[in-house]
Amino acid sequence: MSLWMIDVLALLPQTWQDWIMPPSTVPVVQNNPAKVQLSRISHVYFDHGDLEAFDRFAKDFGFVQAERKGNTIYYRGYGRDPYVYVASQSPTRRSRFMGTAFVAKDQENFDKALALPGAVIKDLEETPGCGRMITFARPNDTFFHVIYGQTEREFVEIPTATHDYQGPFNTPLEKHRKGRFQRYHDGPALVHKLGHFGYVCKEFEQELDFYTSNFNFVHSDILNLPKLPHIDVMTFMHLDLGKVFTDHHSFFLQRAPPGTSKTYVHHTSFEVSDFDTQLMGHKYLANKGWKSVWGVGRHILGSQIFDYWYDPSGFKIEHYADGDVVNEDNPTRKEPVGPVSVWGPELPKDFGDNKAR
Ligand SMILES: [Fe+2]
After folding, report:
1. Distance CA 325, CA 213 (A)
2. What gap in Å lies between CA 336 and CA 338, rounded to an integer?
3. Ligand 1 centroid to 294 CA: how many Å?
4. Which helix (H) or strand (E) covers residue 61, if one does?
5. Which helix (DSSP H) or strand (DSSP E) does residue 123 occupy?
6. Within 10 Å of residue 357's Cβ, how many Cβ atoms?
């Protein structure tokens, strides 16, 4: 819903407002040990209409192929997850988002997830790192996965495809880099890990209740409509790990505006190491002819430096760096929807739209 529509709605009598957009307040939730404890986000699944086209994009985006099995490609970053993105050829040639997998904290919590209604378990023995996965089919063809027992990757240093020499950085008063030079060359922005994803969700309250009642998702920021503060429309959620710091959001849900026909994934987001990497990656993707969505800029909530692109199927995919981390001492904040960036190009008017095909 655009800002002018909200302005008009705010002028209508309360009963009309409630009929067009019913009041909806997202309750602040607390984690507790009875819920399934997830330790981190791991990977996403997509069916692509043209897998070979996606494979070309994936290399330019900074994914590394971990393994290919027939019509499924497992891409990894350089983090501990054996893969962060699983792309399959769509049998119907229609592209679909097939859900995100999170890692259970331990066997006990994996078993707890298995006891939830709708849980379907399968072995991942044919995949890099193996392990087992539980899938929950949610409304509107969305899926949520919990994994456990994967063999993790080991890495000791951050690889780069663009940096010959970088750092330390000089500041106006302190010149840490003396007699040495910053040198870069063209290449993709190598991905570290999956950071977050989110839906524009038709079943906003129902799905929020499913995720926050059963798992350790806690709200970082809940956003309401300016002029209509009784309508919460967006939440950024993190995994509560107690005193351990975790990404400001690994999952967000946006209430689908009136007229939205179906829940859809808004974007998926992958971490890269630094600002130079992002700008080098942006230049590389642009030179390869891929289509930019929005970026490079700096978000406000989560503080990430962002850069959004369309993949060949029309899904939005983001590089991010320098995101905030929070822990149990950061309270949930409630605020009106405001500007999305502190700097960067103007927000595209169609940023919220679903262009996947
Ligand atoms: Fe994002």
Report:
1. 22
2. 6
3. 11
4. helix 51-61
5. strand 120-123
6. 11
Rounded-to-integer distance, Cα 307 and Cα 343, Å? 12
Alpha-carbon distance of 217 to 41, in angstroms, equals 11
CA distances from 88 to 6, 78, 309, 353 (A): 40, 21, 20, 23
Q: Give the chain's domains with CATH numbers.
A: 38-152+190-343 (3.10.180.10)
d(CA 254, CA 201): 6
| Interval between CA 270 and ligand 1 midpoint (Å) | 8
Ligand 1 center–CA 318 separation, angstroms: 6
CA of 79 to the centre of ligand 1 (A): 19
**CA–centroid distance, residue 112 to ligand 1 (Å):** 29
Q: Give burial (CB, 10 Å; 0-12/13-18/19+) of 205.
A: middle
Name the token pair of 56.
């070309």
What pTM value is reported for the model? 0.96
Residue range 232-263, pLDDT digits in tens: 999 999 999 999 999 999 999 999 988 899 99
Phi, psi of 142 (to 5 degrees): -105, 155
**Chain position carrying tokens 């602040």:** 28
Those residues whose C-beta lies under 8 Å from the C-beta of residue 263, and which sit 6 or more positions away, are 139, 140, 141, 142, 199, 200, 201, 202, 203, 207, 256
- Beta-carbon neighbours within 5 Å of ion ligand 1: 269, 318
Segment 21-72, tens digit of pLDDT: 777 889 999 999 999 999 999 999 999 999 999 999 999 999 999 999 999 9
Please spell the DSSP secondary structure of 269-282, one letter per residue. EEE-S-HHHHHHHH
State in Å: Cα 177 to ligand 1 middle. 33
Task: Place 2 in a pLDDT band, splitting at 50, 70 and 90.
Answer: low
Q: Is 148 exposed, middle or buried (0-12, 13-18, 19+ CB in 10 A)?
A: buried
* C-beta of residue 319 within 8 angstroms of C-beta of residue 189: yes
pLDDT of residue 82: 98
Q: How many CB atoms lie within 10 A of CB 352?
A: 17
